[in-house]
Request: fold
Amino acid sequence: MSNDLINVISKNNPFQGRLVVRDQNVWGQGFPDVPSLNSHASDAVYDAVEKVRSGQRKIVGITITAERGLGKSHVIGRIRHQLQVDGSALFVYMSQCNNLNRIKAEFLTTLANSLKQIGSQDVSQWQYLATALINEAFNKNYTAQQLINQFPGALVKNPKVVEVLRDKVLGIKRDLENPDIITAILWTLSPDPAYELFAISWLAGKSLPQSKADAMGLANVSADDKEAESFTTARQIINLIGDYKPIVVCFDEMETDHCNEMGYTGRQVTAIFAKDLCDKIKRGVLLTSIFPDQWINEVKRLGNADSVVDRIGEQVIELKYLNSDDVINLVSRWLEEFYEENGLTPPDALYPFDEQKLRALGKERPIVRKVLKWCADNFKIPGGNGRIEIHPVELVYNQQISALETTIQDYMEDKATLAQALRLGFNAVIGETIENVQIEKVVDVQVKAVDRGYLDFKIVGKENGKDVKIAVAVLQESGGLFVQATLKRLTRYKDFDLTRGCLVRSKQINKGAAKAQEYLSELLSAELGGEWVLLKPEDIKPLLALHFVMKGRENDELSEGEIIDFIQKKRIAIDNYLIGEILSDPSGQVPEDAIDEENESGNFLLTKVADVVNVGSDDLFQE
Reply:
């Protein structure tokens, strides 16, 4: 046996920290897949896609039931990657909802973020849709990349080119209720990442800086209208996609620890929403994954259970437990990838495991997660001294940090997730003294119904013997009344029993928003002593990673205590810049490095013009 093999096995464990399929595994590099495992489930989805594509069916609802760890998300990941390879359908994936009372708005955000993922032609699913719309309108056969390459030059020649294209597309989409949807989709062809980001943010239901909205020809939706408009916008987008390809919309488990205002659980809210989606879209496949007991005790006990089940549970597919051959196939596939990545040839396909022990494990009819956990615990050279022990949370945390390298921008506008990450950080330092503040507890801000949704939490402690009560509000909205309303509530110390208000924000507040600026000045005044802490991705990233570890702790077989212990031992929270700044003496200053959205981008497209050469007489934008 080579020393290289011994060295690699002693220092690496391909199974450790990889018990759970996460969002990044669905969209990006997945885990090693054995297509034969639960192929009946994935084949049913492929068959449904084909039936919708060929016109045999309009809508197909499939529900996958299986207990935790049996492989639901593995199957979903397989389906996503296969659709990406063959291009037979577009894919949308929703696995969480922070506010069950606003699932329509959260779904629209999920839809927008899903469609910015790369599809089958090495461009985003949004860019595929934009290209399909243009090709139909102009009776052409352009690739998305051709249009992306032409965009800068065309915009310089005619600053209203997007408006021209929109009007041409609207000629074939006369039943579309909101023409701005077409405008925003066409802007996703811009190679300027800022314009593409603004377009996708608008499609996600977010408000843009007014100057950008005006420049792009988009109308911002008022805060009061967003929930009502979100479902209508999502339906129109899905129906546009349906004109060209089927779409698979997947709701994966959707576990939450709370109910909505009507008392419905996360699974019930999701099921009702999926049923409504089935009723309103032209064509597609609705895929739901759920635990069997929740399907029976929650979904099937809804008042309108029959209509819900008829739509989303037209086919109910149970996943199968593994047998001995399945265990051998699963483990050998994982080991094959591990040895290939390290350029090694093992003595046999199952090394360092004993085949008979694996087959004995298979006789217990285990779930996938149990097999991977067994492998993680037993991956060592036979007769060796084992391996260096690491904290059980560390590998899972490192995976989340790695995933956030490419996905963190998806969360920089997500108030709820950002606030939850910050709150977890503060919970982990209760009892500590940071910036002369001894933290006693972290609590909700007690508010009336009209004040809900603005202030995220309150830190209670002592500073030099005096009470400290700091309200924290994460505010990433670009503009509009929500910004004004949040700043106003941060100044109402008496109403909410505060000694300080703290704004956490990455971007400037529009200087033309007079009322918002007035409240900001009041907050930062010497009289109130409030603070504006600048939010940067690199500072929130470790707290976000911890938040995702905490949310998935049951799947990773971690306890809350183990996670808090890891946070404290690694000093992740106590040394975090944001936590220190929120607790430090207020500077009363507006951060100099806050992002200026009003002036962001612009030069990119001009510099790209030099890259556009010999467009030719058949240039779409000449027409």
